[in-house]
Design goal:
By secondary structure, this protein is mainly alpha-helical. It is built from 6 helices and 2 strands, in the order H-H-H-H-E-E-H-H.
Length: about 160
């Protein structure tokens, strides 16, 4: 295959369309969450991922797992956790069985904010998808997203809902 191969060109165009769809959705949700709840998409995603933790085996996520779930580097995730901790939305504490491990939990205030923000997130997502479906280049991707039957996710399973 060469750089001008039609298959590669089509692949690149598909990737550009997917990237455009993601960017439009994220920007739309970002504006809605910021305006109504003073939350970024990343902050919302982090609260969502951490709210799904539980006390059983494998119930608490390590920072690497959290970083993977919110698609950030570990250092960016740590800064994000610190910002939300400073706002009283998260708290950190030492793992009772391994003093080197640090857990992060959503506080009651964080859970309340997450529940208040969830309808905003969901409505903004629906609006962004509806808008994108009117674009001939993005409409096929919207149909694929809408057809996905992804089971409810537990702690650490894949990307958070957005």
């Amino acid at each position: 295959m060469t750089a001008t191969d039609p298959a590669l060109t089509a692949l690149a165009q598909g990737w550009c369309a997917l990237s455009a769809l993601h960017g439009r959705i994220e920007a739309h949700i970002e504006r809605a969450l910021q305006a109504r709840h003073d939350l970024s998409v990343r902050e919302y995603s982090l609260l969502d991922v951490l709210s799904r933790q539980h006390d059983g085996d494998g119930g608490h996520l390590q920072m690497k797992q959290v970083a993977d779930a919110v698609v950030l580097s570990q250092s960016a995730t740590t800064r994000l956790v610190t910002r939300l901790e400073d706002r009283g939305l998260l708290e950190r504490y030492l793992c009772p069985t391994d003093r080197r491990g640090i857990y992060t939990n959503v506080t009651e205030a964080g859970l309340r904010l997450l529940e208040e923000a969830r309808p905003t997130n969901d409505a903004a997502l629906r609006e962004a998808l509806d808008e994108a479906s009117r674009n001939p280049e993005l409409a096929p991707l919207v149909r694929v997203v809408e057809s996905l039957k992804v089971p409810a996710q537990g702690a650490g399973a894949g990307a958070p809902s957005r």
